[in-house]
Specification:
Length: 186
């Protein structure tokens, strides 16, 4: 079998590529670091293949990803599917008029912006990001993309931290949520 047609690494093999960093960003937190996965060529390629299969099944017409790690995974998925990618940016990063949304974080507030002309009315958008924790950023991106005229019914993540209930919050907004991996704790 040629390399182009071999099966990608399994999800358990991908999970083994995630580095655990204790006490980051504060004591008591076990941080799930995906940089070790991105750095692993076969692992990164397999991750994109697994996400792209799910995005194709969701009939994605556009992939959207949130700054910054959503750009890494989302753009690669869009390229593999041969469809467009819409970056959901932090404020002040786009050189054109934008629409934006302010949202709450665990320790403050943040804002996301998009170029509304990047969304075709009724386009089926699948959100792709590295991780869902509390769901605040994904919920804000969903609302913003819908406000721009897109249909957001699916979101894909490499990692879910189910103890933080972000996926449940996103499901409550009418979004089907899938994650390749889930890890207990925060």
């Amino acid at each position: 079998m040629s390399d182009a047609h071999k099966e990608p690494m399994s999800l358990s093999e991908l999970a083994a590529l995630i580095r655990d960093v204790p006490d980051f960003p504060q004591p008591g937190i076990l941080f799930r670091d995906i940089t070790t996965l991105i750095r692993h060529g076969d692992g990164f390629a397999a991750t994109i293949t697994h996400l792209a299969r799910r995005a194709r099944a969701a009939q994605a017409e556009v992939i959207a990803g949130m700054e910054a790690r959503g750009f890494i995974f989302g753009a690669a998925v869009a390229a593999q599917l041969g469809i467009g990618f819409v970056p959901v940016r932090k404020p002040g990063k786009l050189p054109v008029p934008t629409i934006g949304i302010d949202y709450a974080l665990e320790y403050g507030r943040d804002r996301l912006e998009i170029d509304p002309t990047a969304i075709d009315p009724g386009a089926r958008i699948v959100i792709v990001d590295d991780l869902i924790a509390t769901g605040g950023t994904a919920l804000a991106a969903t609302e913003l993309l819908r406000r721009a005229g897109g249909q957001v019914a699916h979101a894909l993540f490499v990692i879910d931290l189910p103890d933080l209930h972000g996926a449940d919050r996103l499901r409550g907004a009418g979004v089907t949520v899938e994650a390749l991996l889930d890890f207990a704790g925060h």
